[in-house]
């Protein structure tokens, strides 16, 4: 049996296996039940390594050792392996989230905050700015600057973005309402859809003919996107902490929604 190298590469990445494990597993799948010698011949993996690889696959749940002599191995159905890996990944993710949630209570995290505060103090606020790359990172910063507001936030975006990130904005709107933060919201897009959004989230977004996305917190912090790239990891935004620019942009925003 000839195993396609492209298939080996893809399966290796999907199932987090090494090259030998992938080749041996594919050979075993094609045979169903086979001895180490048969697998070595089919997979072109050195016979001396095949035993170790089959043992590793057995421990990971990809193969079962058949009782009797000579020793043979049975391939496990791919769908069973997939379900097992999904469960394992979800369990790992849940544990990781729990650890990260508890991190703020540790002394190590307190030291991180202290290091940041000491490092940031000599810097002027207007000098704090940066380019943020990647959609998930951008949304994390949007959440950060909006939830740090004490008086007012400005949100200028599109109907489509609100719809695509409905859960994200639902949480943001609720938290801002509970904190009694004044929200100025303007959306580009279909006015009927804007009315639906206003009704759904109990907000008062206004329609605006500006295809722009930016967020302002307390006339001091601004985050605006500067690219429209299809790949989420390539999207780019600029974050500025400057009252002069934020106040100017806020003024222009107020004039735009009045008109």
Could you walk me through the main structural features you see in this protein, from its secondary elements to its overall organization?
Helix 1 packs across helix 2 and helix 2 packs across helix 4. Helix content is 56%, strand content 18%. The chain has two domains: 76 residues, Orthogonal Bundle (Arc Repressor Mutant, subunit A); 132 residues, Endonuclease Chain A (Endonuclease, Chain A), CATH 3.30.870.10. About 2% of the residues have low confidence. By secondary structure, the chain is an alpha+beta fold. It has eleven helices and ten strands. The strands form two sheets. Strands 4-10-9-8-5-6-7 form a seven-stranded mixed sheet, with helices on both faces. The chain has a three-stranded antiparallel sheet with strand order 1-3-2. Strand 6, helix 10 and strand 7 form a beta-alpha-beta unit.
Key descriptive features of the protein:
259 residues, alpha+beta, Arc Repressor Mutant, subunit A, Endonuclease, Chain A, 2 domains, seven-stranded mixed β-sheet, three-stranded antiparallel β-sheet, 11 helices, 18% strand
Give the topology.
Layout: H1 5-15, H2 19-31, E1 33-35, H3 36-43, H4 47-60, E2 63-66, E3 72-75, H5 78-102, H6 107-120, E4 129-133, H7 135-147, E5 152-158, H8 159-164, H9 166-178, E6 182-188, H10 191-201, E7 206-207, E8 214-217, E9 221-225, E10 236-241, H11 243-258
Parallel strand pairs: 5-6, 6-7
Antiparallel strand pairs: 1-3, 2-3, 4-10, 5-8, 8-9, 9-10
